[in-house]
User: Fold this.
Amino acid sequence: MKLFDPHIHMTSRTTDDYAAMRRAGIVAVTEPAFWLGQPRTHAGSFEDYFLSLVGWERFRASQFGIRHYCTLGLNPKEANNPDLVDPVLDLVDLYLEKDGVVAVGEIGYDDMTPAEDDILSRQVEMAMRHGLPIMVHTPHRDKKAGTRRTIDLLREAGVPPHRVLIDHNNEETLPITLDSGCWAGHTIYPGSKMDEPRMVGLVQAYGAERIMVNSSADWGISDPLKVPKTVAAMEEAGIPAATIETIVWRNPIAFYAQSGRLDPDELERTLPVDQRLLFEGNTVLRGQKPMVEAALSESAIREPAMPGSA
Amino acid sequence: MAFLPALIAARDPGCAAWLDAALASPPLPGTPAFMRVFAAAGRRLRDAPPPGGDEVPALMALGIATPALWSGPRLLRAALLAAAVEAAGGEAPAGLTSAFRTSDTEERATILQALMLLPDPARFTALAADACRSSVQPVFEAIAGDNGFPAAHLAEPVFNQMVLKAVFTGMPLARIVGLAERTTPALRRMAGDFRSERRAAGRVVPADLDLLLDAPSLDGIPTP
Assistant:
């Protein structure tokens, strides 16, 4: 089964992770722009970050046979710095048109401040203007109220719910999200937001319609293989393969394809690895022999050579 | 604010002389000259005993919630800060924000812990609210814990988020000064929602959440 991780911060991960993800069946990812663990102090830092999301990181993923898409936006954790907001939103507006950008995100609330209201509204307007779907981060604290407030704001702005993915759901926010008509993401984290057994329970209760799972793996304690691990848990619980495939493959494609920049037919074809390629003169190799795959069928994919093993 | 220099002189006359020299013409907070002495102060007075005896109530009267937790370098830095902010007049909020941005973790913690010592501390509310959003736990705890500033000056939404974040990050709520007086129906509703989510997820409910929710409410409105 081919897998799509619709929310993962690969910039913070290693080439070992890319190789392991591909071995586990992940052939496509979406990387939302987020923060770096501490707030950036200059708007220019965002520009280099956006450039890497549409540039080097796409290339790096491709070197391991993984198609990389991204979402761009000013995240709510950094939306409260008045010196940054205007120049960063100008950059978002500019970079949203780049190839590989499949949504505005992750945007939403953190502390639910008036500044966050303003930045969210402005980016919702940008999404509508660029014809892009919206990927929403829901807050850790006061989560139910934050989820409702986000849905209300999107409804008032006139965004059709099928163009919105609301992420980081739990047992109490999922019914709210599904009732709104939006798509519902679930972040499977080691021991916090959601775990595999709880996710199995949610799928048994609600089915597969508009439901996705992701790892949100980043620089913190997280696991880039949580999508395949959740697939295994669902299989073990007897959930039908078609249901699982809807959740981990068809739904992410259907949602992000609304951008017009992700071709579902292309995703059905294997991305051949060619580590002889360079990105602006740079390579992921450190002197190793480049691995080169022909365009193979899914069943014929062999284990990618690990950098350093040549 | 002569008390802090006197307290420093009682511990190390040489250090007091260094402080006098640094404050002969106090550098404005956030300037390179200020940041240099502010950093250098962290390497002085390290072996000094914490405040004790009569010093404790005197420091509490100045606005320090828990003087026994104050190290020698923190006392010295607070003396520098107080003099620099006094000298900065109306430029102080911008200067202190700039100083905070280029400070390391302990320097940031000192600025936050010293806020109540500064003239007209309400001017620094935006800085304090921003610090509540820090993901660096010692910085967050410096504003949220053992500090009279939040209860005195933070608006209700900011204060409530700070309390929830303390629960999330495991900082004991007993360290939040003035929590009982600032507990409102909105805060209890947020805490109640959080407890409900944790129970639905089959996860442990932090004991402090129960304490917050089960405390008798000052306004008589029951917890959801």
